[in-house]
Amino acid sequence: MQKLFKDNPWFFGVFAAFLLIGIGLLTYPQGDLLIRLNDHRTAFADQFFQLFTRVGEGYGYAVVFLILLVYKRRAAWGVPLLGIGVSLVAWVTKALFHQPRPYRYFEQQGLLAQLDFIPGIEMHKGLTSFPSGHTMAAFALFSFLAFCFPRKPWLSLTCVIAALLVGVSRMYLVQHFFKDVYTGALLGVTLGAIAYQLLNQIEQKLVLKV
C-alpha cells in the first residue's frame, strides 16, 4: 500500500485535500450546501452536470474498460469486477443506513419551496441517500485507472478531478447530501485500491508460474 501512495502522489494529494476540506463542510447543517448550490444554478451547469453525472454509471466503466483493453489488457478485466464490487457495497450500505434522499428530507422539513429543480430530472425520493453510489462508482473507477498508470501527474489529476465532478453533480442535481458524497468517495478509493492490489497479486502469481 505504501508503494501505491508513492507512485500516485498527485491523486492522493488532491484526494487528501478534499478529505480535509470536507471535514469542515461536514459541520454545516444538512441541506445547506445543496440550497447554496441550487441558488447558483446556471443553464450551462444544468446541462453539464446532467451529462457528467453519467460518468458514475455504466457508460464510464465501458469507456475505461475499452481504454485498458488497448493499453493494459489484463487490467481491463478488473473493471467489470470492480463494478460488481461497487454495486454490492452500495446496495448493502444503502440498505443498512436507510437515509432519506434530499427531496424527501426537504419535503419533510417543509423546505421544498426553497429549491428550483432542473426540469426533466427524475428526483429520487426513497431511503437510499447514504452513501452516494454514483460518487463511489466514479472514485473507484478513476482511482483504479490512475493506479494502473502510476507516476503520470496529468492522468492522476484528470482522474481525481473527474471523480470530484461526479460528486459535485450529485449535489447539484439535489440527489445527495455532502455526507453521502464524502463517504462515497472514501469507499470508492478504498475499493479502487483493493482492486488494484488484487490485480497486482494475480499478475505476480501468473508471472511466477511462467
Automatic annotation (TrEMBL):
A cellular component term, taken from the record's GO annotations: plasma membrane
* Cited SUPFAM superfamilies: Acid phosphatase/Vanadium-dependent haloperoxidase
Residue ranges that the Swiss-Prot or TrEMBL entry lists as coiled coil: none
Supply the InterPro entries for this chain. PAP2/HPO, PAP2/HPO_sf
Compartments (UniProt record)? Cell membrane
Its membrane topology is listed as: Multi-pass membrane protein
Q: GO molecular function terms here?
A: hydrolase activity
Q: Does the keyword Hydrolase apply?
A: yes
Alphabetically sorted, this entry's keywords are: Cell membrane, Hydrolase, Membrane, Transmembrane, Transmembrane helix
Specify the domain of life of the species encoding this protein.
Bacteria
Which residue intervals define the domain Phosphatidic acid phosphatase type 2/haloperoxidase in the entry? Answer: 79-196
Provide the primary localization: membrane
Provide the transmembrane region boundaries.
Answer: 9-28, 48-71, 78-97, 129-147, 154-175, 181-199
PANTHER family per the UniProt record, alphabetical: DECAPRENYLPHOSPHORYL-5-PHOSPHORIBOSE PHOSPHATASE RV3807C-RELATED, SPHINGOSINE-1-PHOSPHATE PHOSPHOHYDROLASE
**The protein's name in its UniProt record:** Phosphoesterase PA-phosphatase related protein
Taxonomic source organism: Haliscomenobacter hydrossis (strain ATCC 27775 / DSM 1100 / LMG 10767 / O)
Lineage of producing organism: Bacteria, Pseudomonadati, Bacteroidota, Saprospiria, Saprospirales
